[in-house]
Amino acid sequence: MESFVYKLAIGLPGFLLAIVAHEAAHAYVAKRFGDDTAEKAGRLNLNPIVHFDLIGTVILPLIGAAFGGVMFGWAKPVPINPTRFKNVKYGIFWVSFAGPLANLLLTIVSALIFSFMYTQVEANFFFYKPFTEMLRQSILINIILATFNLIPFPPLDGSKMVSAMLDYEAAQKYEDLQRFSLLFIIIIWTTPIISYIIAPAILAGNGIVNLLITMMS
Description:
Blueprint: H1 2-32, H2 37-40, H3 54-66, H4 88-120, H5 128-149, H6 157-163, H7 168-175, H8 181-189, H9 193-216
Helix pairs in contact: 1-3, 1-4, 1-5, 4-5, 4-6, 4-9, 5-9, 6-7
């Protein structure tokens, strides 16, 4: 139980910020393209409560923490009305990319703070270990969320980015693959496929951290 509570404590801040920023970014960019549906629904903010999803925000991350893994999950998707975009294709592409992009930016910010603490703060500082562990978790969680959501299979963000570049008929056929989304997710999470997808991104993230540490040393 003590291990579970510790894992939860160091993973929860990064996890909540990652999933909330992901959805808030979708809402912000949608507004920039002319659709304020998410804003009117109260979703253009960083309050975790308004983005709450029972399975994605509570059950799955708790399971991840209980088994000693990374807290993985999602927030409730923000409502988007593409017909209100000033430019539909560009709007769909950038609104879809906004979520993973927010996670990539959080990865960089977390890596910067971690590298600063690692090189500039004494290891005997009382909160050194929990802070650095939180930042490590934040880096890992954001990398995984960004990479996973960029997979071009419906209904993930990557698929919407692809469909925005297709003509109407091709996009409809492509989005029909969403019928197999549950099967697809089960397959990639229960086979080594997910490792082949995410491992290179984690290696890249570690490379960024090592580079920042070298620059700050």
